[in-house]
Write a structure and sequence with these properties.
The complex is a heterodimer of chains A (166) and B (88). Chain A is an alpha+beta fold. Chain A has four helices and seven strands, in the order E-H-E-E-E-H-E-H-E-E-H. Chain A has a seven-stranded mixed beta sheet with strand order 1-2-3-4-5-7-6, sandwiched between helices. Chain B is extended. Classes of the chains: A alpha+beta (166), B mainly alpha (88).
Chain lengths: 166, 88
């Protein structure tokens, strides 16, 4: 049985062998994750092997907003959101449910944040070929927001999440 | 009696495609390089979605399970086995 622990990124966690197959995500973890956390620009949460403290999956959350432009939604021009900016699962641990578990935790963290500072949505961006996977196959409550050239932005409405768990 | 046995084999190319697909899964990257400014249509669409907070049964079930998962994780000092995660 392999025990893993969920915790905030700290200096003791071993990240040197982490490889999720995406150079940008790997690079962020290696070069920016700690600094961003110290500077309060993003918060990184991890799954690590309990015995060895090796990082096997992580995600980052940060505050962001959707600008409504000239229009208004509920009378405001900026909808506050929690951005799930990066999520990476080490190649050796893919397909074991770690990614989905991190999204589940992200929902809780975002909802907690919404009780302190208002935020309405959890926003994620996925590759175009994974769009239907997240929207249809995996019923995690994602709704479609926008397509970009090679990706799609999806969101979960935190008010709906809150209503469901009460 | 002739019996023909057909052996289905995955070609190396198919295995490569499947491996790449798996590698794509579970990673998420948000391109934050430009501010998200909603178009008029997007505003209207989003407003409709945010105004109607009814949740379908499947989504509600997922949300509840998700919440339970976190509460259990919290109860166990955020320690869980990889095997348990796989079962979810």
């Amino acid at each position: 049985m392999t025990e893993i622990i969920f915790k905030e990124l700290d200096k003791e966690i071993i990240i040197r062998d982490f490889d999720c197959g995406d150079l940008e995500i790997n690079s962020f973890l290696e070069k920016l994750a700690h600094t961003n956390q110290e500077e309060k620009l993003s918060k990184t949460y991890t799954f690590c092997i309990k015995d060895t403290n090796e990082l096997i999956a992580f995600m980052t959350l940060s505050a962001s907003q959707l600008n409504t432009g000239d229009a208004r939604i509920f009378g405001i021009d900026k909808v506050p959101v929690v951005l799930l900016g990066r999520l990476g699962v080490d190649n050796d641990f893919k397909g074991k449910g770690l990614g989905f578990s991190l999204i589940r935790i992200a929902l809780e963290k975002a909802l907690d944040a919404s009780y302190i500072i208002a935020c309405r949505l959890l926003l994620v961006e996925t590759t175009s070929d994974m769009k239907s996977y997240y929207l249809e196959k995996v019923n995690m409550g994602f709704e479609w927001f926008r397509d970009r050239k090679k990706s799609s932005i999806l969101f979960i409405d935190l008010k709906k999440y809150e209503k469901s768990i009460q | 009696m002739n019996k023909s046995i057909i052996i289905m084999m995955t070609t190396p190319k198919e295995k490569g495609i499947e491996r790449d697909r798996k590698l794509l899964e579970e990673n998420l990257f948000f391109d934050n390089s430009e501010e998200l400014i909603l178009s008029k249509q997007e505003n209207e669409d989003l407003k409709k979605k945010l105004t109607n907070i009814n949740v379908d049964e499947k989504t509600c079930t997922f949300f509840k399970a998700s919440h339970q998962f976190y509460k259990q994780l919290e109860k166990n000092q955020f320690i869980v086995s990889l095997e348990e995660i796989e079962k979810l």
